[in-house]
Model the fold of this input.
Amino acid sequence: MSSQATSGRARRLNPAMRQEEKVTPLELFFDLVFVLAFTQCTALMADDPTWSGLAKGLLVLGVLWWSWVGYAWLTSVIDPEEDAVRLVIFVAMAALLIVGLCVPEAFGDAALIFACAYAVVRIAHIALFMLASRNAPNLRSSVIGLAVSTAIASGLLVGASFADGTLQGGLWALALALDIAGPYFFGSEGWQLKPHHFAERHGLIVLIALGESIVAVGVGAEHGVDAGVAIAATIGTGVAAALWWLYFDVVALVAERRLADAQPGREQNEMARDSYSILHLPMVAGIVLVALGMKKTLGHVEDPLKLVPAAALLGGAALYLLAHVAFRYRHIHTLNTRRLGLAVLLVAFIAVAVEVPALATIAVLAAALALMIVVETRSYGEGRHRTRQELRGAE
Done:
Protein backbone atom coordinates (compact mmCIF):
# COMPACT_ATOMS: atom_id res chain seq x y z
CA MET A 1 0.00 0.00 0.00
CA SER A 2 1.41 3.39 -0.96
CA SER A 3 2.20 6.05 1.60
CA GLN A 4 -0.24 8.37 -0.19
CA ALA A 5 -3.09 5.87 0.28
CA THR A 6 -2.10 5.40 3.92
CA SER A 7 -2.11 9.13 4.59
CA GLY A 8 -5.46 9.47 2.84
CA ARG A 9 -7.00 6.82 5.10
CA ALA A 10 -5.46 8.47 8.16
CA ARG A 11 -7.07 11.76 7.21
CA ARG A 12 -10.46 10.06 6.91
CA LEU A 13 -10.04 8.46 10.34
CA ASN A 14 -8.96 11.71 11.98
CA PRO A 15 -11.82 14.20 11.68
CA ALA A 16 -10.78 17.83 11.42
CA MET A 17 -11.08 19.79 14.64
CA ARG A 18 -13.57 22.61 14.68
CA GLN A 19 -12.08 26.04 14.01
CA GLU A 20 -15.10 28.33 13.51
CA GLU A 21 -17.67 29.36 16.08
CA LYS A 22 -20.52 29.64 13.57
CA VAL A 23 -23.17 26.90 13.49
CA THR A 24 -23.01 25.00 10.19
CA PRO A 25 -25.94 24.17 7.87
CA LEU A 26 -25.52 20.47 8.69
CA GLU A 27 -26.02 21.16 12.38
CA LEU A 28 -29.19 23.11 11.58
CA PHE A 29 -30.32 20.20 9.40
CA PHE A 30 -29.65 17.77 12.25
CA ASP A 31 -31.59 19.92 14.71
CA LEU A 32 -34.64 19.99 12.43
CA VAL A 33 -35.22 16.30 13.17
CA PHE A 34 -36.14 17.44 16.66
CA VAL A 35 -39.13 19.33 15.27
CA LEU A 36 -40.77 15.92 14.81
CA ALA A 37 -39.46 14.67 18.15
CA PHE A 38 -40.90 17.62 20.10
CA THR A 39 -44.20 17.40 18.21
CA GLN A 40 -44.44 13.70 19.02
CA CYS A 41 -43.76 14.34 22.72
CA THR A 42 -46.63 16.82 22.79
CA ALA A 43 -48.85 14.36 20.92
CA LEU A 44 -47.98 11.59 23.38
CA MET A 45 -49.08 13.73 26.31
CA ALA A 46 -52.14 15.08 24.47
CA ASP A 47 -53.38 11.57 23.73
CA ASP A 48 -53.03 10.62 27.39
CA PRO A 49 -53.69 13.84 29.37
CA THR A 50 -53.07 12.25 32.76
CA TRP A 51 -50.24 12.56 35.26
CA SER A 52 -48.89 9.27 33.96
CA GLY A 53 -49.07 10.51 30.37
CA LEU A 54 -47.32 13.72 31.38
CA ALA A 55 -44.55 11.77 33.09
CA LYS A 56 -44.07 9.54 30.04
CA GLY A 57 -43.84 12.52 27.71
CA LEU A 58 -41.28 14.25 29.91
CA LEU A 59 -39.19 11.07 30.22
CA VAL A 60 -39.10 10.71 26.44
CA LEU A 61 -38.22 14.38 26.10
CA GLY A 62 -35.39 14.00 28.62
CA VAL A 63 -33.93 11.01 26.79
CA LEU A 64 -34.14 12.82 23.44
CA TRP A 65 -32.63 15.94 24.97
CA TRP A 66 -29.60 14.12 26.30
CA SER A 67 -28.92 12.60 22.88
CA TRP A 68 -29.07 16.08 21.35
CA VAL A 69 -26.76 17.46 24.04
CA GLY A 70 -24.15 14.85 23.16
CA TYR A 71 -24.07 16.01 19.55
CA ALA A 72 -23.87 19.67 20.65
CA TRP A 73 -20.66 18.81 22.55
CA LEU A 74 -19.39 16.65 19.69
CA THR A 75 -19.77 19.31 16.99
CA SER A 76 -18.09 21.82 19.25
CA VAL A 77 -14.98 19.65 18.92
CA ILE A 78 -15.00 18.31 15.35
CA ASP A 79 -15.95 19.82 12.02
CA PRO A 80 -19.30 18.21 11.09
CA GLU A 81 -18.82 19.14 7.43
CA GLU A 82 -16.04 16.57 7.02
CA ASP A 83 -17.25 13.89 4.58
CA ALA A 84 -16.88 10.89 6.92
CA VAL A 85 -18.38 12.79 9.86
CA ARG A 86 -21.21 14.03 7.67
CA LEU A 87 -22.14 10.49 6.66
CA VAL A 88 -22.18 9.24 10.25
CA ILE A 89 -24.39 12.17 11.27
CA PHE A 90 -26.77 11.29 8.43
CA VAL A 91 -26.99 7.77 9.85
CA ALA A 92 -27.71 9.22 13.29
CA MET A 93 -30.41 11.45 11.80
CA ALA A 94 -32.11 8.46 10.18
CA ALA A 95 -32.05 6.58 13.49
CA LEU A 96 -33.31 9.68 15.29
CA LEU A 97 -36.19 9.96 12.82
CA ILE A 98 -37.18 6.38 13.67
CA VAL A 99 -36.97 7.30 17.35
CA GLY A 100 -39.30 10.22 16.74
CA LEU A 101 -41.78 8.06 14.85
CA CYS A 102 -41.81 5.59 17.76
CA VAL A 103 -42.47 8.20 20.46
CA PRO A 104 -46.29 7.73 20.62
CA GLU A 105 -45.72 4.02 21.36
CA ALA A 106 -42.39 4.35 23.18
CA PHE A 107 -43.96 2.68 26.23
CA GLY A 108 -45.98 0.24 24.15
CA ASP A 109 -45.63 -1.77 20.97
CA ALA A 110 -42.72 0.30 19.59
CA ALA A 111 -40.68 0.28 22.81
CA LEU A 112 -37.97 -2.08 21.54
CA ILE A 113 -37.64 -0.32 18.16
CA PHE A 114 -37.37 3.01 20.01
CA ALA A 115 -34.63 1.68 22.29
CA CYS A 116 -32.63 0.09 19.46
CA ALA A 117 -32.83 3.15 17.20
CA TYR A 118 -31.89 5.35 20.15
CA ALA A 119 -28.88 3.13 20.81
CA VAL A 120 -27.75 3.65 17.20
CA VAL A 121 -27.94 7.44 17.70
CA ARG A 122 -25.78 7.20 20.80
CA ILE A 123 -23.31 4.68 19.31
CA ALA A 124 -22.71 6.97 16.32
CA HIS A 125 -22.05 9.83 18.73
CA ILE A 126 -19.55 7.87 20.81
CA ALA A 127 -17.80 6.50 17.71
CA LEU A 128 -17.22 10.00 16.33
CA PHE A 129 -16.04 11.24 19.71
CA MET A 130 -13.57 8.36 19.99
CA LEU A 131 -12.10 9.33 16.61
CA ALA A 132 -11.99 13.00 17.57
CA SER A 133 -10.10 12.22 20.78
CA ARG A 134 -7.35 10.04 19.28
CA ASN A 135 -4.70 12.69 19.93
CA ALA A 136 -6.25 14.18 23.07
CA PRO A 137 -5.73 11.88 26.09
CA ASN A 138 -7.83 13.97 28.49
CA LEU A 139 -10.71 14.13 26.05
CA ARG A 140 -10.39 10.38 25.37
CA SER A 141 -10.68 9.66 29.09
CA SER A 142 -13.87 11.72 29.33
CA VAL A 143 -15.32 10.05 26.23
CA ILE A 144 -14.66 6.58 27.66
CA GLY A 145 -16.54 7.57 30.81
CA LEU A 146 -19.38 8.89 28.67
CA ALA A 147 -19.42 5.65 26.70
CA VAL A 148 -19.93 3.68 29.91
CA SER A 149 -22.89 5.77 31.12
CA THR A 150 -24.34 5.75 27.59
CA ALA A 151 -24.11 1.96 27.35
CA ILE A 152 -25.81 1.53 30.73
CA ALA A 153 -28.60 3.97 29.88
CA SER A 154 -29.21 2.41 26.45
CA GLY A 155 -29.22 -1.06 28.00
CA LEU A 156 -31.80 0.03 30.58
CA LEU A 157 -34.07 1.35 27.81
CA VAL A 158 -33.80 -1.97 25.98
CA GLY A 159 -34.64 -3.74 29.23
CA ALA A 160 -37.58 -1.38 29.80
CA SER A 161 -39.05 -2.40 26.45
CA PHE A 162 -39.74 -5.85 27.95
CA ALA A 163 -41.46 -4.41 31.03
CA ASP A 164 -44.59 -2.38 31.61
CA GLY A 165 -46.28 -0.24 34.20
CA THR A 166 -44.32 1.12 37.13
CA LEU A 167 -41.27 -1.05 36.44
CA GLN A 168 -41.01 0.27 32.90
CA GLY A 169 -41.31 3.87 34.02
CA GLY A 170 -38.75 3.28 36.75
CA LEU A 171 -36.23 1.86 34.29
CA TRP A 172 -36.73 4.86 32.02
CA ALA A 173 -36.22 7.26 34.93
CA LEU A 174 -33.12 5.40 36.06
CA ALA A 175 -31.68 5.39 32.52
CA LEU A 176 -32.19 9.14 32.21
CA ALA A 177 -30.82 9.87 35.70
CA LEU A 178 -27.67 7.80 35.16
CA ASP A 179 -27.11 9.30 31.70
CA ILE A 180 -27.34 12.85 32.99
CA ALA A 181 -25.30 12.10 36.12
CA GLY A 182 -22.49 10.45 34.14
CA PRO A 183 -20.50 13.64 33.41
CA TYR A 184 -20.48 14.49 37.13
CA PHE A 185 -18.68 11.23 37.93
CA PHE A 186 -15.88 11.15 35.35
CA GLY A 187 -14.79 14.79 35.51
CA SER A 188 -15.07 17.81 33.27
CA GLU A 189 -11.47 18.78 32.61
CA GLY A 190 -11.08 16.77 29.41
CA TRP A 191 -13.93 18.24 27.41
CA GLN A 192 -13.39 20.87 24.73
CA LEU A 193 -15.83 23.38 23.31
CA LYS A 194 -16.25 26.53 21.28
CA PRO A 195 -18.30 28.71 23.66
CA HIS A 196 -20.06 30.93 21.10
CA HIS A 197 -20.95 27.93 18.96
CA PHE A 198 -22.16 25.98 22.00
CA ALA A 199 -24.40 28.82 23.20
CA GLU A 200 -25.80 29.37 19.71
CA ARG A 201 -26.69 25.68 19.33
CA HIS A 202 -28.72 25.82 22.54
CA GLY A 203 -30.42 29.02 21.49
CA LEU A 204 -31.45 27.37 18.24
CA ILE A 205 -32.94 24.36 20.02
CA VAL A 206 -34.96 26.73 22.20
CA LEU A 207 -36.24 28.29 18.97
CA ILE A 208 -37.22 24.86 17.66
CA ALA A 209 -39.14 24.18 20.87
CA LEU A 210 -40.90 27.54 20.54
CA GLY A 211 -41.78 26.59 16.98
CA GLU A 212 -43.47 23.48 18.39
CA SER A 213 -45.68 25.75 20.52
CA ILE A 214 -46.80 27.50 17.34
CA VAL A 215 -47.45 24.13 15.68
CA ALA A 216 -49.54 23.17 18.71
CA VAL A 217 -51.77 26.19 18.10
CA GLY A 218 -52.42 24.99 14.55
CA VAL A 219 -53.06 21.40 15.64
CA GLY A 220 -55.37 22.55 18.42
CA ALA A 221 -57.52 24.39 15.89
CA GLU A 222 -58.03 21.29 13.72
CA HIS A 223 -61.78 21.22 14.38
CA GLY A 224 -62.38 24.59 12.75
CA VAL A 225 -61.77 28.29 13.25
CA ASP A 226 -64.32 30.61 14.81
CA ALA A 227 -63.96 33.90 16.69
CA GLY A 228 -62.95 32.19 19.94
CA VAL A 229 -60.32 30.04 18.26
CA ALA A 230 -58.95 33.03 16.35
CA ILE A 231 -58.62 35.02 19.57
CA ALA A 232 -57.00 32.10 21.39
CA ALA A 233 -54.58 31.53 18.50
CA THR A 234 -53.58 35.18 18.58
CA ILE A 235 -53.06 35.08 22.33
CA GLY A 236 -51.15 31.80 22.02
CA THR A 237 -48.80 33.41 19.54
CA GLY A 238 -48.34 36.20 22.06
CA VAL A 239 -47.40 33.66 24.74
CA ALA A 240 -44.80 32.10 22.43
CA ALA A 241 -43.45 35.56 21.59
CA ALA A 242 -43.18 36.41 25.30
CA LEU A 243 -41.26 33.20 25.99
CA TRP A 244 -38.93 34.11 23.12
CA TRP A 245 -38.42 37.62 24.49
CA LEU A 246 -37.63 36.43 28.00
CA TYR A 247 -34.75 34.32 26.69
CA PHE A 248 -33.37 36.09 23.64
CA ASP A 249 -33.71 39.76 24.59
CA VAL A 250 -30.80 39.84 27.06
CA VAL A 251 -30.44 36.49 28.85
CA ALA A 252 -29.00 34.56 25.91
CA LEU A 253 -26.57 37.34 25.00
CA VAL A 254 -25.23 37.81 28.53
CA ALA A 255 -24.97 34.06 29.16
CA GLU A 256 -23.01 33.54 25.95
CA ARG A 257 -20.54 36.24 26.95
CA ARG A 258 -20.19 34.74 30.44
CA LEU A 259 -19.42 31.34 28.96
CA ALA A 260 -16.88 32.79 26.52
CA ASP A 261 -15.16 34.73 29.32
CA ALA A 262 -14.88 31.72 31.63
CA GLN A 263 -11.48 30.09 32.03
CA PRO A 264 -11.13 27.34 29.38
CA GLY A 265 -11.01 23.90 30.89
CA ARG A 266 -12.82 22.87 34.05
CA GLU A 267 -14.48 26.22 34.79
CA GLN A 268 -15.83 26.74 31.30
CA ASN A 269 -16.83 23.10 30.84
CA GLU A 270 -18.73 22.95 34.10
CA MET A 271 -20.53 26.18 33.31
CA ALA A 272 -21.49 24.80 29.89
CA ARG A 273 -22.62 21.51 31.44
CA ASP A 274 -24.71 23.09 34.20
CA SER A 275 -26.11 26.14 32.41
CA TYR A 276 -26.72 24.68 28.99
CA SER A 277 -26.75 20.87 29.04
CA ILE A 278 -28.71 20.66 32.31
CA LEU A 279 -30.69 23.86 32.82
CA HIS A 280 -31.86 24.18 29.23
CA LEU A 281 -33.75 20.90 29.65
CA PRO A 282 -36.38 22.40 32.02
CA MET A 283 -36.59 25.41 29.70
CA VAL A 284 -37.41 23.19 26.73
CA ALA A 285 -39.66 20.97 28.86
CA GLY A 286 -41.53 24.06 30.02
CA ILE A 287 -42.08 25.17 26.43
CA VAL A 288 -43.33 21.71 25.42
CA LEU A 289 -45.74 21.69 28.36
CA VAL A 290 -47.03 25.13 27.39
CA ALA A 291 -47.52 23.79 23.86
CA LEU A 292 -49.62 20.96 25.27
CA GLY A 293 -51.74 23.42 27.25
CA MET A 294 -52.23 25.66 24.21
CA LYS A 295 -53.25 22.66 22.10
CA LYS A 296 -55.92 21.72 24.63
CA THR A 297 -57.03 25.35 24.93
CA LEU A 298 -57.61 25.67 21.18
CA GLY A 299 -59.66 22.47 21.24
CA HIS A 300 -62.38 23.93 23.52
CA VAL A 301 -61.79 27.61 24.23
CA GLU A 302 -65.11 28.09 26.02
CA ASP A 303 -64.64 25.24 28.50
CA PRO A 304 -62.34 25.17 31.53
CA LEU A 305 -59.13 23.24 31.15
CA LYS A 306 -58.94 19.97 33.02
CA LEU A 307 -56.37 19.77 35.80
CA VAL A 308 -53.51 18.16 33.86
CA PRO A 309 -53.70 20.47 30.80
CA ALA A 310 -54.04 23.48 33.13
CA ALA A 311 -50.99 22.31 35.08
CA ALA A 312 -49.14 21.83 31.79
CA LEU A 313 -49.95 25.33 30.52
CA LEU A 314 -49.31 27.29 33.70
CA GLY A 315 -46.83 24.90 35.32
CA GLY A 316 -44.88 24.72 32.05
CA ALA A 317 -44.55 28.50 31.98
CA ALA A 318 -43.53 28.44 35.64
CA LEU A 319 -40.93 25.74 34.95
CA TYR A 320 -39.53 27.85 32.11
CA LEU A 321 -39.21 30.86 34.42
CA LEU A 322 -37.66 28.81 37.22
CA ALA A 323 -35.07 27.46 34.80
CA HIS A 324 -34.20 31.07 33.96
CA VAL A 325 -33.84 31.83 37.67
CA ALA A 326 -31.46 28.89 38.10
CA PHE A 327 -29.64 29.82 34.87
CA ARG A 328 -28.93 33.30 36.18
CA TYR A 329 -27.94 32.02 39.61
CA ARG A 330 -25.44 29.61 38.06
CA HIS A 331 -23.81 32.45 36.14
CA ILE A 332 -23.81 35.40 38.54
CA HIS A 333 -25.13 33.93 41.83
CA THR A 334 -28.06 36.32 42.14
CA LEU A 335 -31.80 35.54 42.13
CA ASN A 336 -34.25 37.05 39.67
CA THR A 337 -37.00 37.55 42.23
CA ARG A 338 -39.48 38.86 39.63
CA ARG A 339 -39.41 35.68 37.57
CA LEU A 340 -39.39 33.55 40.70
CA GLY A 341 -42.44 35.36 42.04
CA LEU A 342 -44.32 35.09 38.75
CA ALA A 343 -43.60 31.35 38.61
CA VAL A 344 -45.15 30.92 42.07
CA LEU A 345 -48.23 32.95 41.06
CA LEU A 346 -48.72 30.92 37.88
CA VAL A 347 -48.66 27.66 39.83
CA ALA A 348 -51.18 29.10 42.31
CA PHE A 349 -53.47 30.13 39.43
CA ILE A 350 -53.88 26.47 38.37
CA ALA A 351 -56.64 26.17 41.00
CA VAL A 352 -58.53 28.98 39.27
CA ALA A 353 -57.80 27.78 35.72
CA VAL A 354 -59.89 24.62 36.17
CA GLU A 355 -62.93 26.79 36.91
CA VAL A 356 -62.77 29.49 34.21
CA PRO A 357 -62.87 29.22 30.39
CA ALA A 358 -59.62 28.09 28.80
CA LEU A 359 -59.56 31.30 26.77
CA ALA A 360 -59.45 33.31 30.00
CA THR A 361 -56.59 31.18 31.35
CA ILE A 362 -54.38 31.64 28.32
CA ALA A 363 -55.22 35.37 28.32
CA VAL A 364 -54.08 35.67 31.95
CA LEU A 365 -50.87 33.83 31.12
CA ALA A 366 -50.15 36.11 28.16
CA ALA A 367 -50.91 39.22 30.22
CA ALA A 368 -48.70 38.07 33.10
CA LEU A 369 -45.74 37.36 30.81
CA ALA A 370 -46.23 40.67 28.97
CA LEU A 371 -46.34 42.56 32.28
CA MET A 372 -43.12 40.83 33.33
CA ILE A 373 -41.44 41.96 30.12
CA VAL A 374 -42.63 45.55 30.57
CA VAL A 375 -41.47 45.68 34.20
CA GLU A 376 -38.05 44.22 33.39
CA THR A 377 -37.55 46.41 30.33
CA ARG A 378 -38.38 49.57 32.29
CA SER A 379 -36.34 48.44 35.28
CA TYR A 380 -33.19 47.75 33.28
CA GLY A 381 -33.75 50.85 31.18
CA GLU A 382 -30.69 52.27 29.46
CA GLY A 383 -28.50 49.48 30.86
CA ARG A 384 -30.50 46.91 28.90
CA HIS A 385 -30.16 48.88 25.67
CA ARG A 386 -26.44 49.42 26.18
CA THR A 387 -25.86 45.75 27.01
CA ARG A 388 -27.71 44.63 23.90
CA GLN A 389 -25.77 47.01 21.71
CA GLU A 390 -22.42 45.97 23.16
CA LEU A 391 -23.01 42.25 23.02
CA ARG A 392 -24.68 42.19 19.62
CA GLY A 393 -21.98 44.43 18.24
CA ALA A 394 -19.32 42.01 19.53
CA GLU A 395 -20.77 39.06 17.59
Summary: The chain has two domains: 9-192, 226-395. The two ends are 48 Å apart (CA to CA). Confidence is low (pLDDT under 50) at residues 1-11. The chain is about 80% helix and 0% strand.
